[in-house]
């Protein structure tokens, strides 16, 4: 619950509690707070058990943590990962190649993997047949970005 509290913060909280409540009232306060936390946990556990009883026997292995979407999806993929073909999708997708093809298409260059040998031009003319060199990039405009 308090995983991010360090040693210095804990010492500061203890010193602050001693200053506010005094050394004579502090043990009674700690007992009251711990009893309150126990009661809340017992209430929560009984509410969870009541919900499980009402849902019926088909939900006997139901966990409330499964209602978190990330945990639910992770659990389903762990159980049925091979059946869904996730490994095939993961292995068949080359992100670097896809990004290179998209960058080439945006920059007007032909990609090296599937470029045809010669593309016929529909119109004749010296300016239209000129293609940019593969390392040519459009000029950078700082105002446009």
TrEMBL record:
UniProtKB keywords: Cell membrane, Membrane, Protein transport, Translocation, Transmembrane, Transmembrane helix, Transport
An example Gene Ontology molecular-function term: protein transmembrane transporter activity
Localization (cell): Cell membrane; Membrane
GO biological process, one term: protein transport by the Tat complex
Membrane topology recorded in Swiss-Prot or TrEMBL: Single-pass membrane protein
A cellular-component GO term for this protein: TAT protein transport complex
Region (Disordered): 104-145
Alphabetical list of InterPro entries matching this protein: TatA/B/E, TatB
Biased composition (Basic and acidic residues): 126-145
Transmembrane portions of the chain: 6-22
Quaternary structure (record): The Tat system comprises two distinct complexes: a TatABC complex, containing multiple copies of TatA, TatB and TatC subunits, and a separate TatA complex, containing only TatA subunits. Substrates initially bind to the TatABC complex, which probably triggers association of the separate TatA complex to form the active translocon.
Family: Belongs to the TatB family.
Function comment: Part of the twin-arginine translocation (Tat) system that transports large folded proteins containing a characteristic twin-arginine motif in their signal peptide across membranes. Together with TatC, TatB is part of a receptor directly interacting with Tat signal peptides. TatB may form an oligomeric binding site that transiently accommodates folded Tat precursor proteins before their translocation.
Name of the molecule in the record: Sec-independent protein translocase protein TatB
Taxonomic source organism: Streptomyces indicus
């Amino acid at each position: 619950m308090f995983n991010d509290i360090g040693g210095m913060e804990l010492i500061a909280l203890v010193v602050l509690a001693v200053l506010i409540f005094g050394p004579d009232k502090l043990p009674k306060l700690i007992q009251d707070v711990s009893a309150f936390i126990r009661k809340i946990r017992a209430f929560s556990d009984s509410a969870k058990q009541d919900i499980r009883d009402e849902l019926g026997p088909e939900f006997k292995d139901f966990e409330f943590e499964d209602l978190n979407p990330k945990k639910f999806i992770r659990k389903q993929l762990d159980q049925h990962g091979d059946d869904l073909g996730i490994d095939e999708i993961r292995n068949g997708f080359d992100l670097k190649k896809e990004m290179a093809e998209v960058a080439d298409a945006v920059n007007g260059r032909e990609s090296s993997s599937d470029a045809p040998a010669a593309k016929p031009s529909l119109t004749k003319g010296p300016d239209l047949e000129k293609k940019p060199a593969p390392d040519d990039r459009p000029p950078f405009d700082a105002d446009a970005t």
